[in-house]
Amino acid sequence: LEKMTDLVAVWEVALSDGVHKIEFEHGTTSGKRVVYVDGKEEIRKEWMFKLVGKETFTVGVAKTKATINIDAVSGFAYEYTLEINGKSLKKYMENRSKTTNTWVLSLGGTDYRIVLEKDTMDVWCNGKKMETVGEFVEDGTETHFSVGDHSCYIKAVSSGKRKEGIIHTLIVDDREIPEALE
C-alpha cells in the first residue's frame, strides 16, 4: 500500500448517515490528485498540468455533493477548501444544526448515532434510514421506531415561542436522551 505522502487535507463531515472522513492528496510536483471518502478512493488523477481547480464527488448514502477547491495562495503554496452542497463546510454545518437533531447513545454496549431530519421527519440510525410510525398526541407528535429491542420515539412539541419553534426530544426505553453537539 502506497503511503499517503501527498496528503494535504482531511475533513470530517457529519451527515445523516454518519460522520464521513474526506482525505485529499495533492502532488504539487507530479500533479497527482486523489480523493478518499472513508478510506475508499473516489477520484485519482495523475499528471495534471493545472495545479489549481476543483474536484467534485459524492459522500454518503444520500450522495451529497462535495467539492474540493484548490487555490494557489502564493508561489508554491496552495489552499484547500471543502464545499458541501455548494456551501463552505462551516456554513453547511451551521445550517445543518438548524435542520437536524443528533443524539449519540450507548445501548447494551453498542454505540448509536440517531439523526432526525426535521424537514422530512426522516430518522437515521448508524447510517440506515429507520422505519417510523408517527402519531398525534395531546401536546404534539411522536415518531416511533425501534433500535434493536429498544423502543424509541422522538417527541415534537411546540416551544410556544415563535423564534424557538418546535422542540424535539428523543426518548429511549422511557428515558430522555440529551442531544449531541457535532
Automatic annotation (TrEMBL):
Subcellular location: Cytoplasm
Keyword annotations: Apoptosis, Cytoplasm
Main localisation: cytoplasm
Keyword Transcription regulation tagged: no
UniProt-listed Gene3D superfamilies: 2.40.128.180
GO BP term, pick one: negative regulation of extrinsic apoptotic signaling pathway via death domain receptors
Cellular component GO terms, alphabetical: cytoplasm
Stretch forming the signal peptide: none
Coiled-coil residue spans: none
Its job: Plays a role as an inducible effector molecule that mediates Fas resistance produced by surface Ig engagement in B cells.
Family classification: Belongs to the FAIM1 family.
UniProt protein name: Fas apoptotic inhibitory molecule 1
Organism: Asarcornis scutulata
